[in-house]
Design a protein that fits this description.
The complex is a heterodimer. Chain A contains six helices and nine strands. Chain A is an alpha/beta fold. In chain A, helix 3 packs parallel to helix 5 and helix 4 crosses helix 5. Chain A is globular. Chain B has eleven helices and no strands. In chain B, helix 3 packs antiparallel against helix 9, helix 7 crosses helix 8 and helix 8 runs antiparallel to helix 9. The longest helix of chain B is centred in the last third of the chain and has 28 residues. Classes of the chains: A alpha/beta, B mainly alpha. The interface between A and B is medium-sized, with 32 and 27 residues.
């Protein structure tokens, strides 16, 4: 492998309190390029809250999230991360192509062009279709295509396999392996057990 | 992509969206026209009274129409997760939010400007004050969108934010209402209105510079 820039995402002593209930405390992890962090735990155990802390949407009640040693708000973190949450983040009145163009405008162009990304997620020829005409699984694949067209090294995925069929899941696993092989890192929650080849998977169980 | 590219992409996106769900444009405009046309019916055959209160009627209706349209500013983006994506962009959120506000004004404020002269004539307003009416609307309605955006951003996460939104935003609309309707009224008598127009210009520039920051900050709080 050639030398690639390595990034480091750290959480130190994180805790999250919601409605007077401690979801987790004293949670620390360190993730470097090429690794996957899988968050496990039952419903309501704080997986999504942790992801939202890593996105900067929520402040942790204690602790800090660091990107290459700097607090995320002071660093280049947001130029390097991409998030796909519960909500697809696509407009249903726009076409597939229009949606991706907006995503591209909001970020920096990445590894793949829009057409290449669409063929990667098996949505070629759907570019002029309104998103409201897509199935739930197709919408999910579209929101994952957003990860491919923009430049980013951290993917933060909240239940990326929801509403995907078997082929869809296999496809996303391949994309995830490729992303890690090219020096990216992924934080995700999933009910499925993921199968990734040659990728170091760290697990955190929140319960 | 550069910031200006992102800024115009947001404006273009919101304009296309507005075009595809036309009720968003039609609702505030229809409301504006309906309220103004109902006044002569309610007041009866008193053309002088109507003429005297015409500036007030038009401005109050414009203000309520703007209020009515505010909720659509961030609602759908909040519901479908697009707002998260906009705020996660590495570009400054305040500039992107300003793009959204401008698109919102083009869709809901600008149409009011186009029908206002017609409605003013309908209320018997003297024709020489039409120019000033248009000028006050041109300067005032963007302020309504800009100030309203702060209120919407604060309340978009609440399920029934409508009432709080009016309470938050209406007091801040009052200066615009006072200076704008006063300018139109004075213009009808033929006196100069430079002072009112200058004040409106300064309010516009101040809100243009100062409103996007709290809006972006409030949106970040709302998606928490």
């Amino acid at each position: 492998m050639t030398a690639k820039p390595t990034f480091r995402l750290q959480g130190t002593d994180l805790s999250c309190i919601r409605d007077d209930r401690i979801l987790f405390e004293g949670l620390s992890f360190e993730l470097v390029s090429g690794q996957v962090l899988l968050l496990e735990g039952k419903n309501g155990s704080g997986k999504t809250s942790l992801l939202r802390i890593l996105c900067g949407f929520r402040e942790p009640d204690a602790g800090q999230v660091l990107w290459c040693g700097e607090a995320i708000d002071d660093s280049q973190y947001y130029a390097d991360m991409a998030y796909v949450g519960h909500l697809d983040g696509v407009k249903k009145e726009l076409t597939v192509l229009e949606n991706l163009k907006v995503s591209l405008a909001l970020g920096q162009s990445g590894q793949y062009s829009i057409q290449q990304a669409l063929s990667k997620v098996h949505l070629t020829d759907y570019d002029e279709v309104l998103v409201q005409a897509l199935s739930a699984g197709q919408k999910r694949r579209l929101s994952l295509a957003r990860l491919l067209i923009t430049k980013n090294s951290v993917w933060i995925l909240d239940e990326p396999f929801t509403s995907l069929d078997k082929q869809g899941i296999a496809l996303i696993e391949i994309l995830m392996s490729e992303h890690c092989a090219s020096g990216g890192m992924i934080v995700l929650t999933s009910h499925h057990d993921i199968e990734l080849h040659d990728v170091a998977v760290q697990r955190i169980n929140l319960s | 992509m550069s910031l200006s590219h992102a800024f115009f992409a947001i404006i273009r996106r919101d304009l296309v969206l507005a075009l595809r769900r036309r009720s968003e444009i039609a609702n505030p405009l229809l409301f504006f026209i309906l309220v103004i046309t109902l006044f002569p019916l309610g007041i009866g055959a008193q053309p002088h009274l109507l003429q005297a209160i015409a500036p007030g009627i038009i401005w109050v209706s414009a203000l309520l129409a703007a209020m009515l349209s505010l909720d659509s500013l961030f609602r759908s983006d909040f519901d479908d997760g697009s707002l998260e994506q906009i705020l996660l962009s590495s570009h400054p959120a305040s500039i992107l939010v300003l793009g959204k506000i401008i698109a919102h004004w083009l869709v809901t404020g600008l149409p009011l400007l186009i029908v206002a002269p017609l409605l003013a004539i309908f209320l018997g307003m003297p024709t020489h004050s039409l120019g000033i009416l248009l000028l006050t609307l041109l300067l005032g309605t963007p302020v309504l969108s800009l100030i309203g955006a702060i209120g919407v951003a604060l309340t978009v996460g609440l399920r029934r934010g409508g009432m709080i939104l009016s309470l938050l935003v209406l007091p801040l609309y009052v200066p615009v209402l006072i200076f704008a309707s006063n300018a139109v009224e004075i213009a009808g008598t033929g006196l100069p209105v430079d002072a009112q127009i200058n004040i409106l210009i300064s309010i516009l520039f101040m809100s243009l510079v100062l409103a996007p920051w709290p809006t972006a900050a409030a949106l970040k709080m709302s998606i928490n």
